[in-house]
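G.,

No rush on this.
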Amino acid sequence: MILRTPLVPMPGADRVWLKLENLQPIGSFKIRGASCAIDRLSPEQRAQGVVTASAGNMAQGVALAAKRYGVTATIIAPDTAPKTKLEAIARLGGRIISVPFDRWWKTLEDRAYPGVTGAFIHPVEDDDVMAGNGTIANEILEDLPDVEQILVPWGGGGLSCGIARALEARGAKARVRVIACEVATAAPLTASFAAGRATSIDRIPSFVDGIGGKSVLPRMFDLARRHVDGTIVAPLDEVKAAVRLLLERVRIVAEGAGATPIACLRQALPKKTVCIVSGGNIDLSVLREFLGSATD
C-alpha cells in the first residue's frame, strides 16, 4: 500500500532533488504515518474504530488504512477543507464531520471530539505517526547518501520531526540539516522560534491548505527546537509559481504545501538538497487558475 517514492533531480537546478511523495496512493506522504499508527494499535483498539482531525491528506491515509482492517474511520475536518480532498475521503469510506476551523484546531489540541469514540490518530504528535513519516529519511539516505539538507513543509511538525529523528537514528543528523518550510500567510513555527515559545499567529487562509496552522502545538515546538535546524518562509506568490514550475518542468502536480520547499530554494544554503514534495491533492479549479495566470 505504501510506495517507495522516487528521488529525482530537479531540472534546471544544480544539486537539488525532489522526493515525490505526491505519488503515494492517496497523493500524500500521510499514508506512511497513518498506516504505521494503525498497524501498531492492538486488535481491540482497532475494533473500536479510528478518529483523526485533518484537512484532508491525513484523513485519506487514516481512511485507507482503516479500510484495510475493515474498521470505521471518523474524520473531523475544517469547513475550509478543499473539495477534492473531501471527495477522496468519502471514496475511501471515511465519515466526515465538518466543523469551523477553530473547533477543528481544538480537536487537535484535545485529541478528541465530543460524542465520537475510537482510537485517536493524531496527525502530527503521535510517535508512531512520526516513525512512519521517518521512513522517508531512510529512503533518501539510501538513494542519496551524501545529502546535506532536506527542505520539508511544516504543517504541524510530524513530517519535519519524523525525518529528523530518523536521521538521528541512522547517525546522519549531524551532517544533514532539516529545514522547515512555511508560507508567509501562516508561519507559526518561524514566529514561535522568534518568541522562544509556542505562539499563535494571525493566519490568512489561502490555497496552501496542507500547512499553515494558527499556532504550534507545545510538544511539537519542543521537538522542533531539538531537531529542526531552521525555517524558511516563502511568499504566497512564489509558492504559486512553484506549483506551475513543477507542472511545466517535471510534469508533476503538487499542492501548495508540496510546492513550498521549491519556493524556499532561493533562500536556502547552496548545499546538496532534497525537497519533499509532500502531496499533490490540489483542487482542479485552483490549478486551472494558476495555469491561466501564467499566460495572462
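When you get to it, here's the other one too:
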Amino acid sequence: MSDETCRIDVWLWRARFFKTRTLAAKFVDEGKVRLTRAGAESRLDKCARPVRVGDHLVFAAAGKLTAIRVEALGDRRGPPTEARGLYAALG
C-alpha cells in the first residue's frame, strides 16, 4: 500500500470510531461501510481495502448514522483531538 492510502480498518481505528482494530476489521468485513470515491459508490467487504484523502464514508455504528469525508490518513492512533482532524462530518 502506498503512502497515499491506508487500510480502512486501520483508518477507522486511528480516527477512533472503534476501540480496537479487530472490531473495525469485523465491522468492515460484514459489509457495513459504504465508500464513495470520484462519484462511484461501493460497499467495502474486506478490511484491507484502501481509503484515500477525499473519500466519503457512510456507516451506522452504535445506532448512529455517520457520514464523513477523509481529510487525512494519520500516522498513529493519537488523542481524540488528533483523531478528529482525520475527518470532516458531512451533512
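Strands lie at 6-7, 33-37, 40-44, 50-51, 56-61, 64-70, 87-89. The radius of gyration is 12 Å.

Enjoy the weekend,
O.
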